[in-house]
Here is the input.
Amino acid sequence: MAAAARINCSSVQNTLCFLNPLQCYSLNSKASHLRTHLHFRRKLLSSSSSRRAVFCTTVTNINGGEAEAEPIVLTTPLYYVNAPPHMGSAYTTIAADAIARFQRLLGNKVVFVTGTDEHGEKIAAAAAANGSSPREHCDVISQAYKNLWKDLDIAYDKFIRTTDSKHEAIVKEFYSRVLANGDIYRADYEGLYCINCEEYKDEKELLGNNCCPTHLKPCVPRKEDNYFFALSKYESFLEDTLTQNPDFVKPSFRLNEVQSWIKSGLRDFSISRASVDWGIPVPNDSKQTIYVWFDALLGYISALSEDTEEPNLENAISSGWPATLHLIGKDILRFHAVYWPAMLMSARLDLPKMVFGHGFLTKDGMKMGKSLGNTIEPNDLVNKFGSDAVRYFFLREVEFGGDGDYSEDRFINTVNAHLANTIGNLLNRTLGLLKKNCQSTLVVDSSIAAEGTRFVEDVEKLVKKARVHYENLLLSSACEAVLEIGNAGNLYMDERAPWSLFRQGGAAAESAAKDLVIILETMRIIAIALSPVAPSLCWRIYSQLGFTKDQFDAVTWSETKWGGLKGGQVMAQPKPVFARIENQAEAENVVGAAKKVVKRK
Ligand code: MSP
Here is the structure.
């Protein structure tokens, strides 16, 4: 029971702190006159020890003393390098990047971890098929991921490769710790193995001809003398943990799935392979390598290890573990919500605060993936239409958590309607009018321009709405709230018709000049609120409003408050910030890019 109680203790903090330790502080502050909050100090004992000291202390801050904020550690899965990235792999990373950027806007310290999963049978086979050594193959594909992340404006903090030596050292230490705690034993195993999932399967979950339901390929019979992890020992611990901390798995419907797996009984699983050379050797038996999942999951911890420090668990953990949020696709939920927490419990390490399992990007209803060969090339879309369109489309059009089918028509329509029309066109025509009538200069502060209108209130409500959606990982709804600000701006512009007020001259022209300030202030707010999703576009908007890149980079969410634009500020020359996909030929190009599928032989 000790472990369950310990986890329960941290779950209080987890719930309050979800993705916002600063907010956690203020929530606690409200609850107590003494501005008190729980603070957990973690200290690892030596790996041979079966117990770990967890000091749950109380830190008192009177009169708003600075609370020590824990970093928000956000992870994507570590991607298999059997083939270059496709749109499905890019999806998790785009979402993670938007969440990381939003948290940075709130002023939080973020450690955004991504990387590549490079060991195991599947990777070795892919390298052999390419005629390269596993190492060369991994170098090439891992670099392809890094290149794509650059093209997609992904601002990660740590990129871990499971072939990094610091990772290997940490995996070995972790394995030895679990072994010392009595949770690893040797046994024979016989079963059906899906090489693409890198997982033994239960016969009852397979399709005809023993095909894996995800990869539609037959599983192969395997018999091995392996080392096993005593997962079954952790059944009741896991059950208690999930009951006491239901936010551990999100969305909530995925929690039910995890709970039913646990209820139906957990079987020990094999964590070594005698037949696979391309892996980390088992510490006490160099004839076997560590199972790729037992290896890769540790990447979330080894990524935190600073290159200047000795690569060991204690150092890595002290740099930010436990993770605040693991973002994953639903196909790897069992590994993250069952195997991983049990492994961590065995090693007496804290559990991550949350695992969020999103849905699949599908093509004709089937999961888009390397093994089915029905992928969309993210590079093609990015090269033609830029990272903003790709990022915006997938975050806006796929409800985060559910599946979403890709359609070229929807891509074109959404991007044109939202980014080119609602946002881009509004900015462009306002700047055009300002140039013509006010020498591109704001006549008055935006706070003064909006006096006596209800518009500011409407915008502020929508900004709040967007913030709450971001905080709750409702990325599509966050985009929608920002778009509503754009719609409100367009409506205001059409109702006020400043172009005709300018023609009237006198007081009418003066109020038209104020109207332009109001719309441009709205654009400034949109540029901040949408920047987690479409950072390059938002920088272009910001720059048109006369700000520098340094100013854009330093912007915070608090600056979405009305009143940032001041009288006298000179706007840039109007230049479209987002090119509409105008004609049939261009539309056909998008279709062509999207249709470029990698055909499976
Ligand atoms: N290497 C493991 C993860 C180890 S994490 C310690 C792995 N790699 S993967 O490359 O196969 O998948 C990585 C992620 O991409 C998974 O979260 C998976 O769900 C996601 N996607 C792969 N295809 C996808 C779609 N078609 N749609 C959305 N996400 C998908 O699993």
Q: What stands out?
A: Residues 77-80, 88-89, 91-92, 117, 296-297, 299, 328-329, 331-332, 360-361, 367-369 surround 5'-O-[(L-methionyl)-sulphamoyl]adenosine (CB under 6 Å). Confidence is low (pLDDT under 50) at residues 1-67, 593-601. DSSP finds 22 helices and 18 strands in the chain.
